[in-house]
Each structure stands twice: as structure tokens, then as C-alpha cells.
Design brief:
- The chain has 268 residues and is an alpha/beta fold.
- It has 9 helices and 12 strands.
- It has a single domain, classed as 3-Layer(aba) Sandwich (Rossmann fold).
- The strands form 3 sheets. A 6-stranded mixed sheet has the order 6-7-8-3-9-10, with helices on both faces. The chain has a 4-stranded antiparallel sheet with strand order 2-1-4-5, with helices on one face. A two-stranded antiparallel sheet has the order 11-12.
- Helix 4 runs antiparallel to helix 5.
- It is globular and about 55 Å long.
- Keywords: ATP-binding, Cell membrane, Ion transport, Iron, Iron transport, Membrane, Nucleotide-binding, Transport.
- Belongs to the ABC transporter superfamily.
């Protein structure tokens, strides 16, 4: 499978009169899992929205395979690059199967019809996210965690080679968070899909990332292997938090232990 390149160059973007990103450069490692972390309002979601063309840049550009995404036809772009935004909204009354099926729309033109490949893609997405039994239920009747898995299934059904996900584990309990992240690992390893996602949990980010990016103030403060990025000094700068970073005894990946002002003293 061809590994597509995605990058941002001197990117500035924002909303109304507020600039969120300013002069940002970002090269997504092809075929890897990149996780973006940072404090609230640091620009994580703005970066994903701009790199997917949902938000136009004020300055700079986003390149897919060396070509501006704004010079790429929408359907052609959607066949390569998919986005699961934060808090998406489903049409009223739509069923789970119908919403997941919408992930196949970029693969159909004026003439092409729904076929076996589409059926297989939807069935695989439903099964991978464990929502087969929900297929005929209206999305608006589901719990927050169930709805989140439906949106992830739609993104999987799209079968893009680059996938951007903004907080895909929102509303999920810890077991389903791990289940979804394991699923994304499988997608990356089996299909070679390039994945970029925003996560709030630093320890899950360090566990699942090949490439970890820490943002602060609309810029990339640090990036690289998790062990190089998740450090006590970087946590202090990015989050204003004192912590201890140790090695996970199972994976060897870094784990951040927040100290806080009221940490327990040792006893015994």
C-alpha cells in the first residue's frame, strides 16, 4: 500500500479574530501512529480541522503528497484522508447501519453503485467496533459511548489511508478506550494506515504512539518517541503540572504520575 505524506508548513489558523495556530510546521510520519497531547485550548483540534480542510488556514499550507489539500477535489481527498471530529452530530432518526454506510460515500461517483465491497467494508467496521447488534437502532437512542463507537465505525468504513481522530475515546470507559486504541493499532499494522489522533490521557498516548507530539500555545513544543517527549520537564511546561515519570513495568513505555498539591506522604 502506498504511504501518503501529510504535512503543514508555517500554518496559522483560528476562529474569527482569534489566532490559535501560528507559524506551525508539522510532518506526519507515514505509516505510523502519531498522538497529539496538550492542555485545553492549545490548538490540538484546530490543527486536525485545518489539516483535514474543515478549517481554512490564515497563512501557510497543508500538503498531501506534496500537493495543497485545497487544490485537491473533495471526493478525491476523502478517498485518502478521513476525519473523525470532536462531538460529531448525526442526522435525526438515522440508524447505526445507515450512518456507518455514509463512510462509503467518497467511493461513489455519479455512475458507480453500491456493491459487495461496500457491504464488506460496512460489515467489517460494525464487527470491529462491536456494534453489530446495534445496526438497526437509531443513533440518537444510544449512549454516549455507543455513539462514539458508531462514529469510529463510519471512519473505518471509509477505508482511507490517512485517518485523523479528535479524541476518539471520548465518552468511553477504560475497557472500551483500550479496545478502540487496540483496534487502531490493528488498522495501522494490517493496512498500513497512517493515524493521527488527539488524546487527553498522557499514559495511553505514550503507550499507543509511535510518534508523540506535545503542543503548547498553538505551536509544537516537543515531538518524537514517547520516551523523549513524556518527561517531567515537558509535563511541567505543557501542563503546568509537577509529576514523576517512570517506566511501565509491562511495556517499558513512560508513565506519568501527577503529584498535585495534596499528594499522600509515605507511611510505614
Amino acid at each position: 500500500m502506498t504511504k501518503h505524506s501529510l504535512s503543514a508548513h508555517q500554518l496559522s489558523a483560528g476562529y474569527a479574530d482569534t489566532i490559535i495556530l501560528e507559524g506551525l510546521d508539522f510532518q506526519v510520519p507515514p505509516g505510523q501512529i502519531t498522538v497529539i497531547v496538550g492542555a485545553n485550548a492549545c490548538g490540538k483540534s484546530t490543527l486536525l480541522r485545518t489539516m483535514s480542510r474543515l478549517l481554512p488556514p490564515r497563512h501557510g499550507q497543508v500538503l498531501l503528497d506534496g500537493k495543497s489539500i485545497h487544490r485537491t477535489a473533495p471526493r478525491q481527498l476523502a478517498q485518502v484522508l478521513g476525519l473523525l471530529p470532536q462531538s460529531p452530530i448525526a442526522p435525526e432518526g438515522i440508524t447505526v447501519a445507515d450512518l456507518v454506510s455514509r463512510g462509503r460515500h467518497p467511493h461513489h461517483g455519479m455512475i458507480s453503485r453500491w456493491g459487495r465491497k461496500d457491504d464488506e467494508a460496512v460489515a467489517q467496521a460494525l464487527e470491529a467496533t462491536n456494534i453489530v447488534e446495534l445496526a438497526e437502532r437509531p443513533v440518537d437512542e444510544l449512549s454516549g459511548g455507543q455513539r462514539q463507537r458508531v462514529w469510529i465505525a463510519m471512519a473505518l468504513a471509509q477505508q482511507t489511508q490517512v485517518l485523523l481522530l479528535d479524541e476518539p475515546t471520548t465518552f468511553l470507559d477504560i475497557s472500551h478506550q483500550v479496545e478502540v486504541l487496540d483496534l487502531l493499532i490493528d488498522l495501522n499494522q494490517q493496512r498500513g494506515t497512517t493515524i493521527v489522533m488527539v488524546l487527553h490521557d498522557l499514559n495511553l498516548a505514550a503507550r499507543y504512539a509511535d510518534h508523540l507530539v506535545a503542543m503548547a500555545g498553538g505551536r509544537i513544543f516537543a515531538s518524537g518517541p514517547p520516551a523523549d517527549v513524556l518527561t517531567e520537564a515537558n509535563v511541567r511546561h505543557v501542563f503546568g503540572l509537577e509529576s514523576r515519570v517512570i517506566a511501565d513495568p509491562t511495556s517499558g513505555r513512560p508513565i506519568m504520575l501527577p503529584l498535585g498539591r495534596h499528594r499522600m506522604a509515605k507511611t510505614g
